[in-house]
Amino acid sequence: MKIPKSFYLNGQVVDIIFDDEQMHKEGLLGLCVSDQNKIFLTRTIIEGKKKIKLPKEKVQQVALHEIVHAMLDSMGEHKLSKNEKFVDQMANCFYQYLTTKV
Fold first, then answer.
1. Among the listed residues 85, 39, 92, the one whose alpha carbon sits nearest the alpha carbon of residue 66
2. What are the tens digits of pLDDT across the range 66-92?
3. What proportions of the chain, in percent to the nearest 5, are helix, strand and coil?
4. Are 14 and 75 in contact (CB under 8 A)?
5. What share of the chain in percent tops pLDDT 90?
6. Class for domain 6-100, per CATH?
7. Which residues does 41 contact at the CB level (< 8 Å), separation at least 6?
8. Cβ-contact 44, 54 below 8 angstroms
9. What's the pLDDT tens digit per position in 14-61?
10. For a tag on the chain, would you pick the N or C end, based on fewer CB atoms within 10 A?
C-alpha cells in the first residue's frame, strides 16, 4: 500500500506530511489535524538515544488510522472519531482489505 502525499475527502484536499521531529516531540506515531486538513506521520521512533525505523506495515496502518479520523471528522462524527478503539479497528479492517485483496 502506497501512502499518498494528499487525497480528496468531501471535496477538500488533505495533506499527509511526514514530520519525524514533531511526532517525536508529541510522542505520537500519527496525528490528524482535521481543521487544517493535515495528517502528520513519522517513520521512526526514539528508543533511548537511538532512532529506530518503523516497519512499513506499521506506518501504513498508522496512516489509515489517521485517515479514519479525518473521514469521521469530515462527516461530523466527532464522538466516533474520539473513540480510539473504534478508529483502530476500522483502520485495521481497511488495512487488511487493501493488503490482501486479489
1. 39
2. 999 999 999 999 999 999 999 999 999
3. 50, 25, 25
4. no
5. 95
6. mainly alpha
7. 3, 16, 17, 18, 19, 23, 29, 30, 59, 62, 63, 66
8. yes
9. 999 999 999 999 999 999 999 999 999 999 999 888 999 999 999 999
10. C
> What whole-number distance in Å separates Cα of residue 4 and Cα of residue 6?
5
Contact by Cβ (8 Å): 30, 23: yes
Give pTM, 2 decimals.
0.94
